[in-house]
Amino acid sequence: MGTTATTTAPSAADLMEAVAAVGAAYFQDFAAAAAGHGLSPSQAKALKAVQEPVPMRALAGRLGCDASNVTGIVDRLESLGLAHREAAAGDRRVKIVGITGQGREVLDRIRADMVRTRDAFAGLDPEQRTALADICRRVLPVPAVR
């Protein structure tokens, strides 16, 4: 008779560490790709966040920063022709930010330049990719702190 090994499921802490490691590797790859196009990680993240037009205040929330910081980020994206800003139709005090065609091209190139991340996900078979996508949908966004 052989012995059967029992596998213990990873603890929540183990999973938190694993997700943090994947997130850190993704961010390093993203930051390097963004830098290759003359953008900071925050500027590239903002470009991703405005694929559909969004108010400046909402963009600040998506980026997790103060609204005053978003002005500088958007100023830089506008100066490069990657984003545009316009007044909202219903309230001209509200500024809406959207991506330009050139911004979409740069964002596509950033994604293409993320070779480490793309190769890691491409190494998963279709069933694993489907399972990972399902798990990500279940755990994100993380519920708010009570």
C-alpha-based Rg, rounded: 19 Å
Mean pLDDT level: 91
Number-wise, the strands total 3
Cα-to-Cα separation, first versus last residue:
52 Å
3D structure, described in words:
This protein has about 150 residues and is mainly alpha-helical. Helix 1 packs across helix 5 (about 100-115) and helix 2 packs across helix 4 (about 65-80). It is elongated and about 70 Å long. The longest helix is centred in the N-terminal third of the chain and has 24 residues, at about 10-35. Strands 1-3-2 form a three-stranded antiparallel sheet. It starts with 11 loop residues before the first helix and ends in a 7-residue tail after the last helix. It has seven helices and three strands.
Which key terms come to mind for this protein?
single chain, 146 residues, mainly alpha
SSE topology:
Elements: H1 12-35, H2 41-49, E1 54-55, H3 56-63, H4 67-79, E2 83-87, E3 95-99, H5 101-113, H6 115-122, H7 126-139
Antiparallel strand pairs: 1-3, 2-3
Concise description?
Helix content is 61%, strand content 8%. The chain is mainly α and 146 residues long. The longest helix is centred in the first third of the chain and has 24 residues.
